Amino acid sequence: MEYPKRNKVLIIGSGPAGLTAAIYCARANLNPIVFEGYQAGGQLTMTTDVENFPGFPEGIMGPNLMDLLRSQAQKFGAKCITRQIDNVNFSSQPFVLQSGSDILEADSVIISTGASAKLLGIKGEDKFVGKGLSTCATCDGFFFKDKSIHVIGGGDSAMEEAIFLTKFASKVTVLHRRDTLRASKIMVDRAIKNPKIDFIWNANPKEFLGNDDKGLNGLIYKDTKTGNDINIDTDGVFVAIGHNPNTSLFKDVLDMDSSGYLITEGKSSKTNIPGVFASGDVQDSTYRQAITAAGSGCMAAIDAERFLEEKGEL
Ligand code: NAP
Q1: Which of 107, 140, 156, 303 is catalytic?
Q2: Closest Cα to atom 2, ligand 1: which residue?
Q3: For residue 123, what are the β-bridge partners?
Q4: For 6-116+243-310, which CATH superfamily applies?
Q5: Domains in the chain: boundaries
Q6: Confidence at residue 1, expressed as pLDDT on a 0 to 100 scale
Q7: Whether residue 139 lies in the annotated active site
Q8: Ligand 1 neighbourhood includes 160 CB (under 6 angstroms)
Q9: Residue 304 φ then ψ, to 5°
């Protein structure tokens, strides 16, 4: 194994929450081990300019920010492993975790597995993912040079995707199910001022259309005002309707709310199992920002350190 079998702190996930937890744990001499997953860095690796992370007045590219956080954690001795945890057993201590055929033990665990893009669950969606249908403008925007494309959603993610996509596309139409946007004022203003962006309001997507060879080429939405089904052409669609927490590993193991977010106790990162802590988007359905994730990663590290101290493990 490329890492110790027994660990004081094992961190699952490598977004801003996991890596901030790693920085704090490493500086507390807890020798944290970070299971980064196969897509290290989390959601920020799929974004472009991050303009609201304090300390970067000119903004910073998401992947660069994650590289910096990772280097900072490694500088203090955190071990980052590009593998995922496949199974957890939190029923007794030390906790037992499995990665492939490796079995590891940990006195405490910090869960920072983040969240993943939601899909609509409508007809044709599965068929066209990767064939004209995407959830990541940064990843796939380049393929839509001079095309006329649609973005579904009315929140900050949708505005961000739409604005970014105007770098490539000739026209971006935002399709929103209501007639008011949920996004923040600054993002709404930018999108509305952008000459390449148009809006279709009160439009509830029903079905994606296309063919096996050429992929997606249209969609049907219901006009919620008239009740009519409207059929439109498109060169591509980006679904940007929010995220689901990555908690399937902890189903029937840790307490979750009705949307699957891990429940933490009061103003702490404590889950219902002592010694298991949660930070970042996996436990936050309200703020979901890089900086709040980083802050909660710091809280989880401090909670883990205090837990180990009380147990006499330090
Ligand atoms: P969100 O705020 O939950 O917005 C989701 C949008 O998708 C809403 O407009 C919603 O419509 C629509 N939607 C949801 N389910 C749908 C469905 N089945 N069919 C059609 N439309 C559907 O999610 P988000 O935009 O990902 O933002 C999440 C959080 O991250 C927010 O706190 C946001 O501020 C933050 N964020 C910030 C930035 C930034 O600061 N640059 C960028 C991205 C995200 P309704 O409005 O009708 O509910």
Answers
A1: 140
A2: 155
A3: 207
A4: FAD/NAD(P)-binding domain (3.50.50.60)
A5: 6-116+243-310, 119-239
A6: 64
A7: yes
A8: yes
A9: -65, -40
User: What global pTM score does this model have?
Assistant: 0.82
Asked about 136 being catalytic, the answer comes back as yes
Averaged over successive runs of 10 residues, the pLDDT of the chain (314 residues) comes to 89 98 98 92 81 93 95 97 96 97 97 94 93 88 95 96 97 98 97 98 98 94 98 98 95 96 97 98 91 97 98 86
pLDDT at residue 52, as a whole number: 87
Q: Quick one: three-class SS letters along the chain?
A: CCCCCEEEEEEECCCHHHHHHHHHHHHCCCCCEEECCCCCCHHHHHCCEECCCCCCCCCEEHHHHHHHHHHHHHHCCCEEECCCCCEEECCCCCEEEEECCEEEEEEEEEECCCEEECCCCCECHHHHECCCEECCHHHHHHHHCCCEEEEECCCHHHHHHHHHHCCCCCEEEEECCCCCCCCCHHHHHHHHHCCCEEEECCEEEEEEEEECCCEEEEEEEEECCCCCEEEEECCEEEECCCEEECCHHHCCCCCECCCCCECCCCCCCECCCCCEEECHHHHCCCCCCHHHHHHHHHHHHHHHHHHHHHHCCC
**Ligand 1 atom closest to 178 (CA):** 47
Task: Spell out the CATH class of 119-239.
Answer: alpha beta
CA 156 to ligand 1: nearest atom: 25
pLDDT of residue 23: 98
pLDDT at 259: 92
Pocket test for ligand 1, best of 157, 159, 161, 164 (most atoms within 8 A of CB): 157
Decide if 202 contacts 224 (C-beta within 8 A).
Answer: yes
Cα–Cα distance for residue pair 201/257, rounded to 1 Å: 31
C-beta of 156 in contact with ligand 1 (< 6 A): yes
Domain 6-116+243-310 identical in fold to domain 119-239: yes
Tokens of 121: 């669950």
